[in-house]
């Protein structure tokens, strides 16, 4: 007797996947297709004609030194935020998993930053980091060059990285804590009985066992840092000073929605999509090899 | 029972709104003003709705000028656009080159209104008019840049009048610095005052083809004019500590720094005249004056800033009737008085200005000084290079200039390097725009 549930007709199966297919089509393939079309034409914002220009838009994007700068900055941003947010997320998760004093309260509090919307977090951090009114105000009074994100590009970049990582560490924390708690207690207790100290247990047992989560977080962090950074950049720096924090996604927004250069922005978003696909491919190809799925 | 009550409530509500809708033609007006200014727009709409019973205007703030533009484009392309939309100066050309609008003159003639087009202040009308001098949109909120100066601080250095030339201005800045003021003048890498208005006052070209009015093939030229000397002077003032950069990122923007008495001078839009008065340190004495000129050079009119109102295509005849009635309503001198009293914006028509003068508007304390803006716009007949700026992708061009300022004032590049790079990058934007509208003639 057949034990599995099967469908006699393919039409029923098609009906089940239809909502999902429709969603993906409406929110992914359709816009991507439109962006593709615009990327190869010159689109007039108020409609009324667009001209086929082949690869001109792409050529212009790649000929622009500022665009390469933007790619470089986005990669720096991705690497820095992934390291910081995953590092802190993991640290906090290990501490909570250990059941240190008051961990129930901390477990709740650590999650909160992720619930703060990016522009709100950015606004708060802008006040915190304002050279004349923020935490550095006293030091800035002694030495104005010490901290000035309005003029110093490195300071501005550090500021958005810290703000983004603060928010994203909470997200990492949730996943890492869940992964740590899924490790059977017996394994950890056994090693403790064998005399393994806390750090040894973390490095030899817990971390190897959560590598799948680690890998997942790495892929997601890097992908998200390319997209989610927008709200923070927009509120904190507007891409400035002098393009120092102009990440790819912000440049797309500015050129497209503010500058009404729809075609240039469409070409840039196609390039961004390709960059993210390549990055993800490399992560699966070279990093996933070192992941142990139990 | 409860269900029944609810049902009847819903039904009667539906009936009421139906009757209401049948009586009055509803149409949408999208604008980009928020806060106090947004509330005043809402008040203007209410006044219009109360003044007649045929039309109902629904005014919606989109949060900012760029948002109003983006949202109107998206809605227009989906055929759900508003009847009237407020478009800021930099968004004018894209709309003008499209078929998306109903020309203001045609709209008013079709609906039987006679508008005296010559009544508009020339510097305002010319800015928004096409190459034949015809207005396609209604100037609405208009402003220009003024020099704000702190009278108390000036009294300390023995001066009772605002400086008229840049030479005098720098003398005053030095004296203020010597008198112990930490920020003699506040500034925020903004292109509008320092590059655009300076070029207008001295009739210097910003771009070829009469700043773009004569054709889409215009090229930026501001790196070859006297503006460069001025920028170098300004940079030196910054290096000497006479000018300080104030921005939200540093903790206090230019307006707040002036209102708090921390900065003693600034170049700012007259539109902020009202809010400075409301937020100033109690008892502080300040005034406004025309922006200074370079000694020995003739003063010309400044550019108008702000936005104009456009009627979009694709609406019903009755909605256009309503839109025309609204435009007619806001063009009345009484509306100008209401608008200018509650915002810092200036009246856009000569009759509006005369009416306000006759009412004694400019004699009283909070509003006194705003007439300087009109004087600044009327400082000379409008000439080739003081008409305005009509360049495509101007938001991007402005950003390139602003980025260059940021680098120059952070001592990363020299004034020449920075401005040459801005011109080069700005010209790429202009060429792309020209190509996008290939075959279109500048209207």
Description:
The complex is a heterodimer of chains A (294) and B (443). Chain A is mainly α and 294 residues long. Chain A has a single domain, classed as MetI-like fold (Orthogonal Bundle). Chain A is 73% helix and 2% strand. Chain A has helices at 10-39, 56-63, 65-97, 103-115, 118-129, 137-142, 153-182, 185-193, 198-209, 211-227, 230-236, 248-258, 262-287, and strands spanning 41-43, 50-52. In chain A, a hairpin with a 6-residue loop joins strand 1 and strand 2 (50-52). The model of chain A has no long low-confidence stretch (mean pLDDT 89). Chain B has 443 residues and is of the alpha/beta class. Chain B folds into two domains: 24-143 and 304-363, 3-Layer(aba) Sandwich (D-Maltodextrin-Binding Protein, domain 2); 145-302 and 392-436, 3-Layer(aba) Sandwich (D-Maltodextrin-Binding Protein, domain 2). Helices cover 47% and strands 14% of the residues of chain B. Chain B is built from 19 helices and eleven strands. Chain B has helices at 2-23, 35-51, 65-77, 92-96, 104-110, 122-128, 151-156, 166-178, 191-201, 208-211, 227-239, 254-259, 273-279, 317-330, 333-342, 350-358, 371-377, 394-409, 415-436, and strands at 25-31, 55-61, 84-88, 101-102, 138-143, 145-150, 183-187, 243-245, 263-269, 286-289, 305-312. In chain B, strands 1, 2, 3, 4, 5 and 11 form a six-stranded mixed β-sheet that branches. Chain B is globular. Mean pLDDT of chain B is 90; it is low at 13-19. Chains A and B meet through helix 12 of A and helix 3, helix 18 and helix 19 of B.
Short structural summary:
Chain A has 13 helices and 2 strands. With 294 residues, chain A is mainly alpha-helical.
SSE run of chain A: HEEHHHHHHHHHHHH
Helical residue percent band of chain B? 40-55%
Structural class of chain A: mainly alpha
- The portion of residues forming beta strands of chain A comes to under 5%
Rg of chain A, rounded, reads 24 Å
Uncertain regions spanning at least 5 consecutive residues of chain A: none
Mean pLDDT of chain A: 89
Question: What Rg of chain B, in angstroms, do the CA atoms define?
Answer: 23 Å
Mean of residue pLDDT values of chain B: 90
What is the helix content of chain A?
Answer: over 70%
CATH architecture of chain A: Orthogonal Bundle
């Amino acid at each position: 007797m057949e034990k599995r549930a099967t469908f006699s007709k393919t039409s029923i199966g098609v009906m089940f996947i239809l909502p999902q297919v429709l969603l993906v089509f409406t929110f992914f393939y359709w816009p991507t297709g439109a962006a593709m079309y615009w990327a190869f034409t010159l689109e007039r914002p108020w409609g009324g004609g667009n001209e086929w220009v082949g690869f001109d838009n792409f050529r212009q994007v790649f000929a622009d030194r500022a665009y390469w700068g933007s790619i470089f900055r986005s990669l720096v941003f991705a690497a820095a935020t992934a390291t910081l947010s995953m590092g802190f997320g993991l640290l906090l998760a290990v501490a909570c998993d250990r059941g240190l004093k008051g961990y129930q309260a901390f477990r709740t509090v650590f999650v909160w930053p992720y619930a703060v919307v990016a522009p709100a977090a950015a606004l708060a951090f802008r006040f915190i980091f304002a050279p004349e009114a923020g935490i550095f105000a006293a030091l800035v009074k002694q030495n104005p060059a010490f901290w000035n994100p309005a003029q110093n590009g490195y300071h501005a970049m550090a500021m958005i990285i810290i703000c983004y990582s603060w928010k994203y560490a909470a997200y990492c924390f949730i996943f890492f804590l869940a992964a740590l708690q899924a490790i059977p207690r017996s394994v950890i207790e056994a090693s403790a009985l064998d005399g393994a100290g806390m750090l040894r247990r973390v490095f030899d047992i817990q971390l190897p066992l959560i590598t799948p989560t680690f890998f997942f977080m790495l892929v997601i962090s890097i992908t998200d840092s390319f997209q989610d950074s927008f709200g923070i950049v927009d509120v904190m720096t507007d891409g400035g000073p002098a393009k120092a924090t102009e990440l790819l996604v912000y440049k797309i927004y500015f050129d497209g929605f503010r500058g009404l250069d729809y075609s240039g922005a469409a070409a840039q978003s196609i390039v961004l999509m390709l960059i993210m696909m390549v990055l993800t491919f490399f992560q699966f190809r070279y990093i996933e090899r070192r992941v142990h799925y139990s | 029972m409860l269900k029944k009550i609810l049902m009847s409530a819903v039904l009667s509500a539906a009936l009421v709104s139906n009757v209401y809708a049948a009586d009055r033609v509803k149409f949408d007006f999208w604008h980009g003003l928020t806060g106090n200014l947004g509330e005043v727009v809402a008040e203007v709409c209410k006044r219009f709705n109360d003044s007649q019973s045929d039309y109902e205007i629904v005014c919606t703030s989109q949060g900012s000028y760029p948002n109003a533009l983006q949202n109107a484009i998206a809605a227009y392309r989906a055929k759900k656009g508003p009847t009237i939309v407020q478009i800021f100066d930099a968004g004018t050309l894209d709309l003008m080159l499209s078929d998306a609008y109903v020309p203001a003159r045609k709209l008013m003639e079709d609906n039987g209104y006679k508008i005296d087009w010559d009544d508009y202040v020339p510097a305002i009308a010319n800015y928004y008019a096409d190459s034949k001098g015809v207005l396609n949109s209604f100037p609405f909120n208009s402003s220009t840049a003024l020099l704000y100066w702190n009278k108390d601080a000036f009294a300390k250095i023995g001066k009772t009048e605002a400086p008229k030339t840049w030479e005098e201005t720098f003398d005053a800045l030095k004296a203020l610095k010597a008198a112990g003021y930490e920020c003699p003048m506040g500034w925020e890498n903004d292109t509008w005052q320092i590059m655009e208005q300076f070029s207008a006052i001295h009739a210097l070209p910003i771009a070829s083809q009469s700043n773009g009015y004569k054709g889409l093939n215009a090229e930026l030229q501001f790196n070859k004019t006297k503006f460069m000397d001025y920028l170098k002077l300004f940079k030196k003032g910054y290096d000497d500590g006479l000018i300080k950069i104030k921005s939200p990122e540093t903790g206090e923007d230019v307006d707040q720094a002036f209102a708090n008495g921390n900065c003693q001078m600034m170049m700012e839009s007259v539109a902020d005249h009202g809010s400075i008065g409301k937020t100033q340190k109690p008892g502080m004495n300040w005034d406004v004056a025309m922006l200074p000129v370079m000694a020995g050079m003739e003063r010309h009119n400044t550019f108008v800033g702000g936005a104009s109102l456009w009627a979009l295509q694709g609406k019903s005849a009755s909605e256009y009737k309503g839109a025309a009635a609204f435009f007619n309503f806001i063009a009345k001198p009484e509306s100008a008085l209401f608008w200018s009293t509650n915002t810092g914006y200036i009246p856009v028509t000569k009759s509006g200005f005369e009416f306000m003068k006759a009412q004694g508007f400019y004699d009283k304390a909070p509003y006194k000084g705003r007439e300087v803006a009109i004087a600044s716009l009327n400082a000379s007949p409008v000439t080739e290079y003081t008409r305005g700026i009509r360049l495509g992708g101007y938001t991007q061009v402005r950003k390139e200039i602003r980025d260059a300022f940021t680098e120059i004032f952070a001592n990363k590049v020299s004034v020449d390097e920075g401005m040459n790079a801005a011109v080069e990058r700005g010209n790429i934007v202009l060429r792309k725009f020209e190509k996008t509208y290939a075959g279109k003639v500048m209207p």
